[in-house]
Amino acid sequence: MVLTIFEWPYGGQHVFLTGSFTSYMIRWTEHIRMTLMENSGTVFQAIWDLTPGYHQYKFLVDGVWRFNEQEPCVTDEYGAVNNIIFVKELEFAPSILHNEAPKSGMDVDNGIFQHPASLSGGMHQEPVSQILDGDIDAFRRHLSILLSRYTTYELLPMSGKVVALDLILPVKQAFHIMYEQGLSVVPIWDDCNRQFCGMLTASDFILILTELHNNVTMLTNEELEMHSISAWKEGKLQIRRASDVPVQSPIRRPLVQAGPHESLQDVALKIIRNKISVIPIIHSSQDGSSSQLLHLACLSGILKYICRHLRYSRGVLPLLQKPIGRLPLGAWVSEAGRANGCQLTTLQLDSPLSAALNLLIEAQISSIPVVDEKGSLIDVYTRSDITSLANNSVYAHIRLDQTSLREALELVYKATDATYAHKRCQTCLRSDSLHDVMERLSDPAVRRLIVIEAGSKRVEGIISLRDVFNFLLN
């Protein structure tokens, strides 16, 4: 048995500890009263004798069940979030307790008393074992329970702004607004019908510039000055009818949206299945007469919520420790030796911008690694980079087939805030764990990780947010 200190640092009047260890016959039924630390108005502590291994616990604070977000957490089979600790078996038992007073109420007597924060470190030492289908299924069930339990309210920020554009706004003006606001997607408001009716994305501007390049009679630069978003959406529908892309209906596709009470799992599935990057969270009145745009939910926000609950669960969910190179996710170059997964295409700096734009649209991808003649990573070109052409109306003065990717990237860096430039081209190794990749992709500024070979920087693959969620929700 190991004496272990539990701590609740957030105050209260009556604080109790309970867990999987508090009763021999019926777990979680015994409540241990925690005492307020001397000279502290908020920190409560309790000491309990635990057997080596994993234990879950929780706090009852003034009649409300709470868990400490700063300590290891796990979601149980019922969807409840509990704290978790791993108690290591002592190699020896000191015969004497030091007489020194604990420092900050935490460093107690040479390891006889162990604090939960120090116990979690043992989870990182477990060896990587063979990946089994059962591990993947268990992991997916765990996430399904978690995401089904919580709604989009969890994603709403305390404060912030959401930009929307009117349907009658000229496309050129919308292009400049999106560039100036640093947006790659924005909702469209139909004032006549008093509702949100669609989204304007970076892909729209790629299509517009491609059509201007391929068919100047369709829409000249002068017409672009007055061409409205509404007119473009109708023109886009005509392009789809004339192309090989199947059109499900002669009318524009309805806006894919979510309500504030929908589960995080439903929202994530809507984003994945509709192949979109964000989804507007809209609150509509009961009679449908008014709509309020609350937030734009994206996969990174949902992943950040997942990571907050899984951050200290590596020992409980072994799949989190597995290297991404052994998991069925991502796109890989043919030389990477992957039998499964999507094929990754790369381009070089002297490739024309038109080739990159065509590949982004036709392959329905969001980014293309840019490599040298040896296949080593130089940079990445993404869909959202198209907005950089709005800087000083560069799009009106260039030819897409005569502008190289090198020149296009120079325009991107000239138009982009330098403080975010270092996050454009984020990399990882195929030996990096799934947990580390998920943590990094939960940063809204990091939309993808390019897998490189250690030392040479030769591109081996790419892991995007969509790849991770396709794997998690499959």
Automatic annotation (TrEMBL):
PROSITE patterns, A to Z: CBS (PS51371)
Keyword Repeat: yes
The entry's keywords: CBS domain, Repeat
One GO process term, biological-process aspect: regulation of glycolytic process
GO CC terms of this entry: chloroplast
KW Repeat (keyword) present: yes
Residue ranges occupied by any CBS domain in the UniProt entry: 158-216, 339-400, 421-474
Highest taxon above the source species: Eukaryota
PANTHER family: AMP-ACTIVATED PROTEIN KINASE, GAMMA REGULATORY SUBUNIT, SUCROSE NONFERMENTING 4-LIKE PROTEIN ISOFORM X1
Name of the protein in question: Sucrose nonfermenting 4-like protein isoform X1
Gene: LOC104591901
